[in-house]
Amino acid sequence: MNRRIGVLISGRGSNLQALIDATRDGRLDASIVVVISNQEHAAGLQRAREAGIEALCLSHRGWPSRDAYDRALVRELTERNVGLVCLAGFMLMVGASMLEAFPHAIVNIHPSLLPSFPGVDAQRQALEHGVKMTGVTVHFVTADLDAGPIIVQRAVPVLDSDTAESLAARILVEEHRLYPEAVALVLDDGWRLDGRRFVRTGDVS
Predict the structure, then answer these.
(1) pLDDT, tens digit, for every residue of 24-58?
(2) Set 41, 104, 110, 139: catalytic member
């Protein structure tokens, strides 16, 4: 797979920073060529600029349709020859135009063991449900919310003393470790999709 990555963000960009760090220290053999935010004041844009990465705001407001916005995203990404799109706190659903332009090449990270607790406030959902284990999932993006094929997962225990904030902080540590690993797996091409299952071809004959 083309190792030129585009990252989409909406906020602080801590998972973006984890990807930047991994490309710099050799854990991720790839180049982040552009960071795009739908929010003008997203802190992650400054993270990208400080790392020497092109960063731009493409607001989702004011377009005649959501598909028009998605097609604009596609233009920006394809003009830079992006091969893999990484969502890192991008708070918009990805539409059909993006999915068609990047088939099985858009990934997202979510702070739960999907399919449990999709959507926002996953950590609070886990606490309220009373689970003893939650975690992190990296998955391919599809038209359905947090429902694409799962690439990798990592468990995080829920402590009796946890608040939503303390649980989120511990999960975030694992997010920063897992996202670069998952992106490296996808870029290495040693996998296939068997229905919904992400199968590493080195593991299965």
Answers:
(1) 999 999 999 999 999 999 999 999 999 999 999 99
(2) 110
Find all residues with CB under 8 Å of 186, minimum gap 6, and list them: 1, 84, 105, 107, 151
| Angle 109-183-127 from CA coordinates, rounded to 5° | 20
Taken as a whole, the chain contains a residue count of 205
**145-179: pLDDT as tens digits:** 999 999 999 999 999 999 999 999 999 999 999 99
What residues contact 114, with CB distance under 8 A and at least 6 apart? 137, 139, 146, 147, 150, 153
The H-or-E segment that residue 184 falls in is helix 164-187
The two tokens of residue 199 are 């199968």
- pTM listed for this prediction: 0.95
Distance of alpha carbon 23 from alpha carbon 187, whole angstroms: 13
- 76 pLDDT higher than 80: yes
Domains and CATH numbers, the chain: 4-200 (3.40.50.170)
* 110 counts as catalytic: yes
